[in-house]
C-alpha cells in the first residue's frame, strides 16, 4: 500500500465557484486522506456536472504546465475518477465547487454535490473499499488511520444567505439563527462520518468572507476595510463550530476533532508577507467572479492575496498551510494542529 503525504487543504478565505491552487503537500505520512469541501478543494468533481462552477480552463493552473491544478505530481483523486478503482485506498477528494452545507446552496449556478451528497459518496467508496480489503473490520481499521478534512460553509453565505435574489434564507433567519441551522446540518453529517469510521478529523472554520474582492464589489463597506456585517455573521458560525468540536471530543474518546481558525488565519497583515494587493484578484474576472478564459493574469502573483474574486493565491496558501500544519499561535488550531493530529495512534 502506498503511503501518501498529508495534503493540507488551505481554507483560509471564502470559496465560491472554482478550484484554486489551494492544496499544499506536507511531509507527514498517513495511509489515506479524505476531503469534503467546496471550490477550494474541488479537483475535478464538477467537470462532468452542468454548472458554471468549474475551472477546467486557463488561466487556472497556469503555474502547473502538466495541467495538474493541485500543484504536485501525486494528489488525492476526485471521486469522479477514483470511484471503482484501487486508488480509493489512498483516499478520495469529494469536494464540489459552489457546494455548501445546505442542499440548496449554490444551485443557481448549476449542479453541485452538497455535504450530504459528499458523505453519501463516501459511503459508496467504503463499500468498494470493503470488497478490496475483504471485510468490514479491515476496512474499519484502515479508515481509523485516515486523515479527514472538512471545509464547507462559505458558499452558504455567499451563494445563499447573501444572495437574496436567489434564496429566501436571509428573510427567514437572523444571522445567528442561520448559523444554528448550518451547524445542525453540519453536525448531522459529521456524526455520520464518525459512524463510518472517521477518527482524525479537521473541521475548518469559515474565513473572512466580507474581505474578498467579491464582497467589496457587491456590498457597502461603510468606510471599513471589509464588509463587517458579513464577517460578523460568519463569526456566529465559527463560534458554534468551535463549540461543536469541544462537544465531539467530549463525547467520543476514540476520536479526535480539531478546529481550524480560518477566520483568524486570514487576519494577518498582508504587507508583512510582501503582499501589495488584497482588494482585487490577480486575474480579470467575469460577471460571476471567475477568471476570464485564456486571458493572461497578473505576472506578479506573489504580491496578490487573491487569485480571482473569491480565492487566495498560491503565495497566501503556502503561508496559511504551514500555520495549519504546525500552528504558530495556540489560536490557529484547537486543541492541536494537524501535525499532532495525524500522529495520534489509532485504536
Structure report:
It is found in: Secreted. This is GDSL esterase/lipase. By secondary structure, the protein is α/β, with parallel strands linked by helices. The chain has one domain. It contains eleven helices and ten strands. The chain has a six-stranded mixed beta sheet. The chain has a two-stranded antiparallel sheet with strand order 1-2. A two-stranded parallel ribbon has the order 8-9. The longest helix has 24 residues. It starts with a strand and ends in a 5-residue tail after the last helix.
The DSSP helix count reads 11
Largest sheet: 6 strands, mixed
The helicity comes to 25-40%
Beta strands, count: 10
Rg, please?
19 Å
Strand content: 5-15%
Low-confidence stretches: 1-28, 66-73
| pLDDT averaged residue by residue | 87
Number of domains: 1
Order of strands across the biggest sheet?
A: 4-3-5-6-7-10
Shape: globular
Order of helices and strands: EEEHEHHEHHHEHHEHEEHEH
What structural category arises from helix and sheet content?
alpha/beta
Measured between the Cα atoms of the first and last residue, the distance is 20 Å
Protein name: GDSL esterase/lipase
Subcellular location: Secreted
GO molecular function: hydrolase activity, acting on ester bonds
Keywords: Hydrolase, Lipid degradation, Lipid metabolism, Secreted, Signal
How would the blueprint of this fold be written?
Blueprint: E1 4-9, E2 23-30, E3 33-37, H1 79-82, E4 91-93, H2 115-133, H3 136-144, E5 147-151, H4 154-161, H5 169-172, H6 175-195, E6 200-204, H7 213-218, H8 228-251, E7 256-260, H9 262-265, E8 277-281, E9 304-306, H10 314-325, E10 333-334, H11 338-342
Parallel strand pairs: 3-4, 3-5, 5-6, 6-7, 8-9
Antiparallel strand pairs: 1-2, 7-10
Helix pairs in contact: 6-8
Keywords: Hydrolase, Lipid degradation, Lipid metabolism, Secreted, Signal
Subcellular location: Secreted
Organism: Ficus carica (Common fig)
Amino acid at each position: 500500500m502506498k503511503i501518501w503525504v498529508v495534503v493540507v487543504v488551505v481554507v483560509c478565505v471564502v470559496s465560491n465557484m472554482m478550484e484554486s491552487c489551494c492544496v499544499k503537500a506536507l511531509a507527514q505520512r498517513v495511509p489515506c486522506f479524505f476531503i469534503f469541501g467546496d471550490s477550494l478543494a474541488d479537483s475535478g468533481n464538477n467537470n462532468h456536472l452542468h454548472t458554471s462552477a468549474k475551472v477546467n480552463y486557463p488561466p487556472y493552473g497556469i503555474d502547473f504546465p502538466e495541467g495538474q491544478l493541485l500543484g504536485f505530481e501525486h494528489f488525492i483523486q476526485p471521486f469522479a475518477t477514483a470511484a471503482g478503482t484501487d486508488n480509493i485506498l489512498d483516499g478520495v477528494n469529494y469536494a464540489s465547487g459552489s457546494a455548501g452545507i445546505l442542499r440548496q446552496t449554490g444551485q443557481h449556478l448549476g449542479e453541485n454535490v452538497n455535504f450530504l451528497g459528499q458523505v453519501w459518496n463516501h459511503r459508496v467508496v467504503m463499500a468498494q473499499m470493503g470488497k478490496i480489503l475483504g471485510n468490514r473490520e479491515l476496512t474499519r481499521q484502515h479508515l481509523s488511520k485516515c486523515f479527514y478534512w472538512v471545509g464547507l460553509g462559505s458558499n452558504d453565505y455567499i451563494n445563499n444567505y447573501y444572495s437574496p435574489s436567489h434564496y429566501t434564507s436571509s428573510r427567514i433567519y437572523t444571522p445567528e439563527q442561520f448559523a444554528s441551522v448550518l451547524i445542525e446540518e453540519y453536525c448531522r453529517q459529521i456524526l455520520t462520518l464518525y459512524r463510518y469510521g472517521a477518527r482524525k478529523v479537521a473541521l475548518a472554520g469559515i474565513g473572512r468572507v466580507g474581505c474578498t474582492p467579491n464582497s467589496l464589489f457587491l456590498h457597502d463597506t461603510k468606510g471599513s476595510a471589509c464588509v463587517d456585517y458579513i464577517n460578523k455573521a460568519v463569526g456566529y458560525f465559527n463560534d458554534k463550530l468551535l463549540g461543536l468540536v469541544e462537544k465531539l471530543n467530549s463525547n467520543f474518546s476514540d476520536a479526535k476533532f480539531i478546529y481550524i481558525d480560518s477566520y483568524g488565519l486570514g487576519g494577518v497583515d498582508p504587507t508583512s508577507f510582501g503582499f501589495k494587493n488584497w482588494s482585487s484578484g490577480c486575474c480579470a474576472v467575469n460577471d460571476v467572479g471567475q477568471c476570464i478564459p485564456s486571458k493572461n493574469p497578473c505576472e506578479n502573483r506573489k504580491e496578490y492575496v487573491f487569485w480571482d474574486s473569491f480565492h487566495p493565491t498560491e503565495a497566501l496558501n503556502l503561508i496559511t498551510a504551514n500555520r495549519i500544519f504546525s500552528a504558530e499561535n495556540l489560536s490557529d488550531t484547537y486543541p492541536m494542529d494537524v501535525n499532532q493530529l495525524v500522529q495520534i495512534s489509532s485504536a
